[in-house]
Design a protein that fits this description.
Layout lengths: L6 H10 L6 H21 L13 H12 L1 H19 L10 H44 L3 E5 L5 E4 L1 H7 L3 H4 L10 H16 L4 E3 L6 E3 L5 E13 L2 E10 L1 H36 L5 H25 L2 E2 H8 L7 E5 L3 E2 L1 H20 L9 E8 L3 E9 L12 H8 L6 E6 L4 E8 L8 H4 L19
């Protein structure tokens, strides 16, 4: 039942459904009502003037026309004329009538016809109202927003399907309840006074746009909503209609957008700081300018590859970085390790380390010969990552005599992440790096699976403070 305030009209229209029954049934009821009117009139003989023969036939005409429609009403009128003449006018059991009785029959027929016409018009009006009500009810039920109507006392009189879904109640559980059942406990105490004030001065208003507003579900969970209020008369009483919109998805989208903006800002800052660091070292390098320029461009390209991985996959793993850097030498490389997700700053730092190891191996180490091999392994436990780069089959290597950019990255720079050891052997370079896991990997399981973080990670490596 859509509107509780329209109970009378609703039940009145329910009786009208009889007019949709088969015609034979409606005409049968018309005949039956006239047949019942005859003994009813006979029972009144001792109680009233016999000159009023039509008294019980008026209800028969009304019932027939109201329930059956125009045709059964006309039939009831015709049968009532015949029955009144035959049973209650002199001479009895005869259709002969005096002039006075004829006039009475004509008047009765006219009054009966007016009744039938008026009831036919009433039925048509009720049909139109019923159709409009069904349309309104259908619109309410398919509306995406929750619709809740309350009376002057704050009792719920209307709930649509969207409101049921939003608050988790069945309709019958809410109808007749105070609206405060849908208000969170911490603001419920003051809501009754606010509601009473609105009923005194009702007006259209929106709530939940400027400040956060929450509704209380049946399961106790609070859901962010926006509410539009408007006054609505229910009978002769003031009521209100609330349009309730669930904005959970919008709030979540806004949260993710905020995270994304901060993440873009954070990563952009990291990139600029990394470029600044590389450029500063390249400008102070004592090597040939052309060689320094080539080294600078190569490191920028390595960073670009890392960021391509992040934009393609949202997160990058250590395996992604190693394979991307050594893509041209995979036949000389053995790679083994966990699929460990990295934070953006950690990925930048490890990219520079792996890039420097690769360049050294190509220029001076194992990858400078076609028979050389590089074995790269890493493993992680609950607290740290162990990274191992072992060259073999290449020319002997010796410690550098000066501290260049490469040495800075492999030794001093690596200490920002963890601790590094470098061994120069006859077989080639052996590099080990131990890093606390908290310094390079997202903290939560959801972040390790590549989800967006709710806050930027701490600064590491060449990155300065985030703020």
């Amino acid at each position: 039942m859509p509107f509780q305030a329209d109970n009378f009209l609703y039940y009145f229209a329910s009786l009208q459904r009889f007019r949709r029954r088969p015609a034979i049934l409606r005409y049968a009821v018309s005949i039956l009502t006239v047949m019942l009117a005859i003994p009813a009139r006979q029972a009144l003989d001792g109680l009233m003037d016999s000159d009023i023969p039509f008294i019980t036939f008026f209800p028969a005409i009304i019932i027939s026309a109201f329930l059956g429609g125009r045709g059964p009403g006309i039939l009831a009128l015709a049968l009532s004329l015949l029955a009144a003449d035959f049973f209650f006018m002199q001479p009895m059991h005869s259709f002969r009538v005096s002039f006075g009785d004829a006039v009475a029959l004509v008047v009765f027929a006219a009054v009966g016809a007016v009744i039938v016409v008026l009831l036919d018009l009433l039925n048509s009006a009720i049909d139109r109202i019923s159709i409009e009500q069904r349309k309104a009810h259908a619109i309410l039920e398919v509306a995406p927003a929750g619709l809740i109507a309350v009376d002057a006392m704050g009792k719920i009189t209307l709930v649509n399907a969207a409101a049921e879904r939003l608050f988790g109640y069945e309709r019958d559980e809410l109808l007749g309840q105070k609206i405060e059942i849908l208000i969170p406990q911490h603001v419920r105490a003051g809501h009754a006074a606010l509601r009473a004030g609105y009923m005194k001065i009702p007006s259209a208003r929106s709530m939940g746009v400027v400040r956060d507003l929450y509704g209380l579900r049946k399961d106790g969970r609070q859901v962010p909503v926006e509410v539009g209020l408007n006054s609505m008369l229910q009978g002769n009483q003031q009521g209100a209609l609330a349009i309730v919109v669930d904005i959970s998805e919008r709030k979540e989208a806004e949260r993710k957008q905020d995270i994304l903006v901060r993440e873009v800002q954070h990563r952009s800052k990291n990139v600029l700081q990394a470029v600044q660091f590389i450029a500063r070292r390249a400008l102070t390098d004592d090597r040939d300018p052309a060689e320094s320029r080539q080294s600078f461009l190569a490191k920028l390209q390595a960073l670009a590859q890392t960021h391509d991985l992040f934009f393609a996959k949202s997160q990058a793993t250590l395996g992604d970085i190693v394979r991307a850097e050594l893509a041209g030498f995979l036949d000389q490389v053995s790679i083994s390790g966990d699929d460990l997700l990295l934070t953006p700053s950690a990925a930048q730092n490890l990219t520079l380390i792996v890039h420097e190891l690769t360049i050294n191996a190509i220029k001076h180490g194992t990858l400078s010969t076609p028979v050389g091999k590089v074995t790269i392994t890493w493993r992680s436990n609950a607290t740290r990552l162990l990274f191992d780069w072992a060259e073999g089959g290449g020319p002997p290597v010796e410690p550098p005599t000066d501290t260049g950019f490469g040495t800075t990255i492999l030794k001093d720079f690596a200490t920002v992440l963890g601790s590094a050891t470098v061994e120069y052997t006859a077989e080639g370079l052996h590099y080990r790096l131990a890093i606390p896991l908290k310094n390079i990997s997202p903290a939560s399981p959801s972040e390790r699976s590549g989800a967006l973080r709710s806050a930027p990670e701490p600064a590491h490596g060449i990155e300065t403070d985030d703020e």
